[in-house]
């Protein structure tokens, strides 16, 4: 007991004596803990945010196209907890408005105690749900959109097509209830919004009785066992329920996002956090290790004396452990606190930036506000893991210095200067300049130089790695799916598939109208600010008599276009099956399918020979094509594509252009947009896609995730930079005596700064090298993984250029500033004090 | 009494105090001394008598609390850091008890370091001459930690002499050496200083070393008890 006390008080006095080293170690331990805790806290926050967002759609699965009998069985099924059916009764015919009339009914909800109010998923702000045939309810914005005053009892006349086909019917409805209002951003083009009005069961029943409507509701449901079962077990249970009612698996759509967060705590998020955590632990243990390593060298003389006085190896080890323990006792709690507080305070800011910046409707803003209001970021396991990881890091970092200290013999210790890796001599230079000193110092202990560079490099690797993924999460990539080229796209808005009632709206007929005539194109070109107008690769419609669910689902009509020789690279980059060889494909009438989902769904395979009919206006061209490959490009391609040469050889007479791209100069963007909006309004078949709108939509779908991730990146950068400063200060402070001797020998302040910044430059260069090689490689791998997992719609790799430039600048400026700062600070101490200093 | 022009090192009312009030320690207390060009002076005194502090202030390594140090007639207190570094590398050679060689440089590089810092052209034959004199010819490429204590101190002496400074300040140069090596080292130091016409100021505990000097200054409690034969008493100047 007595011995322990001696060692402990010795440890304490050593810590007090080596104040600056104690501080540096403490800061390193604190930063490690802080980074771990911050990552854990951001992870917890993201997880909770996900949970809350998906909780808005907390159903387990959606069953599509049910019969009334199946619905009936489902609502009584013992495994079913809740079931809500949705019937999209009709599409609203109102110019370019995307609207539908639907009926929703909750048939069973065992979760709510009273079950009264839960029959409908949205609570009304006033009025009641439609009961009679002519009643309707929706949001006030909906009624304003269709030109009616949003008041209870108000009248609204709507034209609609039951089931999206058949004749257009017109009917006057009475507003029975109002949902909470939504504010629609004027940034978003009307054609990109989806409106829904709710009608009554009575209307549904009467149309069904008239034979106008065949009920084929979708049902969203929850099954029992969310609390107990794993994701896979839940999936099995859902599929079993579907099998019980004889539902094809293809009609079962499992709400994976929700189930993932509900059944286990986000495997993916946890995996990412664990990997980042491990990297952090690794590089921070290097920092702590290098501080102890440098420390033990200066300690060796004292350790030698202790050994001479009879201290055993175990006591020396205990001395180190005590030092580590005392430092950790202060540093770890502070790190935990800061690591929690920083994200806790900044996370809402990141979300707030999202909600105020790019939200397309008040709905998303409200969602963000609500989430900020009740975000849970504290997690005890995270706290414990962070604390444990830091302590283990300290213990592990101590191993090497302890072994070194144990090895030192008392006699050796007296003369011990520095571990020079047993080098006995050095070739050296005839003349010694400041640069010689710099180099000699770096090469004196290559291992320590390497450890320092590696330490600094790894924190930057983490930064570059995360920025590579973040810069690849791009709203522009998402926008480019709608506007592959240029700033605007005017598209033909068609029924696309066989509309029997109004065949003139079918794409094959629309293209015959020659809407995109040369005259129209030159009219577009004449708008001031338009730089160029180009036709998108045209589409023609193929159809076949082949018995395939694919054709059946699309009313026997599929769009087909072509790819150019230049596109081959892009297609090959996303090739999933088969092979793409332009010339071979041209020679053999081969095609590429660009939709993996339907490829699997409809049981296609490479080498399938498909008999198809091409519709060139009213002309029909029969041909046989072979499926050569399956590729999944971002955008820009129709379901099936053939080579440009094959396409040209078809001798098409009808212009199959369905989209026009416009490039405009930035200064005229707004005026061109206004002009195009007017032109598009002239033709009900035109839809305008504008880059700003698509970007806003893109932002709204990614910023909610991206901003918190940027927060994480900034935390990594800040903490990495502080540990970099720490490393540099350590490397200078521990050489204070040597630097003092050099100055006693006549090294001037200016020369000292030159020498130190020379070292700093080598460190910077080394750090940059490591972060640019390792960091970029790791970043690309992480990108590939994220792309593969379809995380955040990542599709294209964007090099994190600005982040890299920023990093290089911060490193350079930072090192110089630190060098100046320390040398200035050192000047305050007289030379002789520095020379005497043991640190 | 000697002429003023001979005086290379001089202090006037030099004081160095640590702490305040009751805790004040007067490490160096109103010391006035003059050392002539080419003189070999030893400073002796008990531990804590202020020898090292005095030597450090003579070399501009420490700042006095009050008083002045003149090197070649110039008051170094008025010098900026840049000029002081220049004085240190051109006019003064230091020899420390703990050798204080730069561990990352080999013997040759350690010796020519003050010259390199000054950007002076290297007189290689002169350096080789010193190295030969000090018996380090075999060890030129060695790193300091492979040398014995005596060899390290000889290297430090070579470094102090290499820039041909007018003054060599040595702080217990034989303190870490055994008697034989210490005697040899001291003899070498004295011979080299004499050979190159340098002024030598040595702090020592060692009676034998002190006796090798032309003059011995005895220090006690920061004050000069006796400044030996050739002492120039400041009162006489006033």
Structure write-up:
The complex is a heterodimer of chains A (839) and B (238). With 839 residues, chain A is of the alpha+beta class. In chain A, the strands form 3 sheets. Chain A has a 6-stranded mixed beta barrel with strand order 2-3-8-5-7-6. A 6-stranded mixed barrel of chain A has the order 13-14-19-16-18-17. In chain A, helix 2 (19-55) runs antiparallel to helix 8 (267-308), helix 8 packs antiparallel against helix 14 (446-472) and helix 13 crosses helix 26. Mean pLDDT of chain A is 78; it is low at 114-119 and 357-363. Chain B contains 8 helices and 10 strands. A 6-stranded mixed β-sheet of chain B has the order 6-7-8-3-9-10, sandwiched between helices. In chain B, strands 2-1-4-5 form a 4-stranded antiparallel β-sheet, with helices on one face. Chain B is globular. At the A-B interface, helix 13, helix 25, helix 26 and helix 28 of A face helix 2 and helix 3 of B.
């Amino acid at each position: 007991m007595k011995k322990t006390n001696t060692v402990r008080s010795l440890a304490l006095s050593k810590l007090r004596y080596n104040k600056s080293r104690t501080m540096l170690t403490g800061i390193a331990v604190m930063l490690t803990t802080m980074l771990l805790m911050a990552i854990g806290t951001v992870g917890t926050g993201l997880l909770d945010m996900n949970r809350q967002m998906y909780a808005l759609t907390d159903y387990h699965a959606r069953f599509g196209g049910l019969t009334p009998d199946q619905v009936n069985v489902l609502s009584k099924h013992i495994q079913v907890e809740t079931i809500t059916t949705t019937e999209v009764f009709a599409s609203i015919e109102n110019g370019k408005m995307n609207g539908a009339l639907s009926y929703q009914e909750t048939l069973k909800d065992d979760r709510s105690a009273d079950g009264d109010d839960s029959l409908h998923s949205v609570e009304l702000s006033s009025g009641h749900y439609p009961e009679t045939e002519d009643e309707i309810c929706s949001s006030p914005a909906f009624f304003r959109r269709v030109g009616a005053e949003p008041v209870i009892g108000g009248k609204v006349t709507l034209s609609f097509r039951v089931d999206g086909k058949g004749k257009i019917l017109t009917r006057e409805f009475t507003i029975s209830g109002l949902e909470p209002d939504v504010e629609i951003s004027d940034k978003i083009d009307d054609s990109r919004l989806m409106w829904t009005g709710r009608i009554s069961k009575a209307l549904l029943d009467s149309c069904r009785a008239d034979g106008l409507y065949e009920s084929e509701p979708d049902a969203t449901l929850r099954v029992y066992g969310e609390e107990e079962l794993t994701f896979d077990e839940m999936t099995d249970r859902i599929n079993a329920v579907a099998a019980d009612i004889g539902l094809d698996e293809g009609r079962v759509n499992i709400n994976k996002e929700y189930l993932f967060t509900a059944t286990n705590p986000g495997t993916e998020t946890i995996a990412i956090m664990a990997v980042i955590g491990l990297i952090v632990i690794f590089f921070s243990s290097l920092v702590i290790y290098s501080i102890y390593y440098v420390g033990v060298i200066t300690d060796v003389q004292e350790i030698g004396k202790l050994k001479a006085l009879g201290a055993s190896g175990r006591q020396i080890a205990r001395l180190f452990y005590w030092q580590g323990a005392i430092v950790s006792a202060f540093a770890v709690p502070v790190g935990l606190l800061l690591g929690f507080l920083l994200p806790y305070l900044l996370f809402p800011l990141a979300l707030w930036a999202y909600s105020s910046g790019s939200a397309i409707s008040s709905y998303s803003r409200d969602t963000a506000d609500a989430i900020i209001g009740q975000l849970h970021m504290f997690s005890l396991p995270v706290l414990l893991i962070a604390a444990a990881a830091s302590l283990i890091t300290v213990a592990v970092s101590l191993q090497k210095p302890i072994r070194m200290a144990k090895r030192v013999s008392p006699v050796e210790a007296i003369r011990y200067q520095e571990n020079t890796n047993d080098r006995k001599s050095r070739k050296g230079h005839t003349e010694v300049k400041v640069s010689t000193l710099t180099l000699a110092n770096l090469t004196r202990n290559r291992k320590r130089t390497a450890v320092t560079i590696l330490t600094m490099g790894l924190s930057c690797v983490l930064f570059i790695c995360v920025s590579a993924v973040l810069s690849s999460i791009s709203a522009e990539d998402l926008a480019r799916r709608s506007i592959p080229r240029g700033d605007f796209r005017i598209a033909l808005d068609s029924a696309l598939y066989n509309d029997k009632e109004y065949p003139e709206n079918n794409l094959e007929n629309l293209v015959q109208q020659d809407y995109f005539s040369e005259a129209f194109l030159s009219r577009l070109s004449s708008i001031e600010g338009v730089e160029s107008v180009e036709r998108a690769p045209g589409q023609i419609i193929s159809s076949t008599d082949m018995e395939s669910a694919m054709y059946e689902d699309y009313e026997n009509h599929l769009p087909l276009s072509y790819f150019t020789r230049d596109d081959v690279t892009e297609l090959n980059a996303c090739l999933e099956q088969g092979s793409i060889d332009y010339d071979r494909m041209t020679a053999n009438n081969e095609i590429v399918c660009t939709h993996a989902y339907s490829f699997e769904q409809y049981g296609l395979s490479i080498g399938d020979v498909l008999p198809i009919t091409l519709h060139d206006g009213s002309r029909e061209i029969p041909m046989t094509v072979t499926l050569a490959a399956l590729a999944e490009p971002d955008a820009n391609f129709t379901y099936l594509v053939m080579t440009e040469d094959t396409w040209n050889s078809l001798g098409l007479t009808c212009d199959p252009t369905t989209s026009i791209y416009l490039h405009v100069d930035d200064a005229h963007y707004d005026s061109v947009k206004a002009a195009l909006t007017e032109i598009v309004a002239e033709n009900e078949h035109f839809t305008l896609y504008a880059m700003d709108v698509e970007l806003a939509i893109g932002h709204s779908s990614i910023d909610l995730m991206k901003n918190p991730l940027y927060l994480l990146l900034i935390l990594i950068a800040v903490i990495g930079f502080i540990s970099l400063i720490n490393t540099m200060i350590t490397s200078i402070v521990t050489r204070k005596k040597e630097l003092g001797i050099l100055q006693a020998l006549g090294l001037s302040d200016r020369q000292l700064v030159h020498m130190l910044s020379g070292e700093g430059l080598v460190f910077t260069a080394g750090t940059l090298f490591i972060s640019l090689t390792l960091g970029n490689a790791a970043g690309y791998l992480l990108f590939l993984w994220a792309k593969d997992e379809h995380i955040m719609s990542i599709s294209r790799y964007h090099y994190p250029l600005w982040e890299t430039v920023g990093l290089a600048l911060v490193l350079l400026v930072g090192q110089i500033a630190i060098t100046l700062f320390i040398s200035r600070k050192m000047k305050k101490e007289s030379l002789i004090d520095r020379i005497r200093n043991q640190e | 009494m000697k002429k003023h022009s001979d005086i290379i090192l001089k202090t006037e009312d030099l004081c160095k105090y640590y702490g305040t009030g009751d805790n004040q320690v007067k490490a160096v207390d109103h010391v006035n001394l003059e050392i002539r060009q080419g003189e070999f002076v030893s400073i002796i005194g008990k531990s804590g008598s202020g020898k090292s502090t005095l030597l450090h202030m003579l070399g501009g390594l420490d700042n006095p609390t009050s008083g002045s140090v003149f090197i070649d007639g110039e008051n170094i207190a008025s010098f900026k850091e840049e000029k002081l570094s220049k004085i240190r590398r051109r006019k003064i050679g230091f020899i420390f008890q703990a050798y204080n060689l730069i561990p990352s440089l080999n013997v040759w590089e350690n010796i020519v370091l003050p010259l390199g810092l000054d950007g002076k052209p290297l007189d290689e034959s002169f350096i080789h001459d010193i190295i030969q004199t000090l018996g380090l010819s075999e060890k030129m490429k060695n790193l300091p930690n492979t040398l014995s204590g005596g060899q390290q101190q000889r290297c430090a002496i070579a470094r102090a002499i290499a820039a041909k400074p007018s003054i060599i300040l040595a702080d217990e140069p034989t303190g870490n050496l055994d008697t034989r090596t210490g005697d040899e080292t001291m003899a070498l130091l004295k011979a080299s200083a004499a050979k190159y016409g340098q002024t030598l100021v040595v702090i020592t505990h060692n009676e034998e070393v002190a006796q090798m000097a032309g003059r011995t200054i005895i220090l006690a409690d920061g004050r000069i008890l006796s400044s030996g034969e050739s002492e120039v008493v400041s009162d006489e100047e006033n």
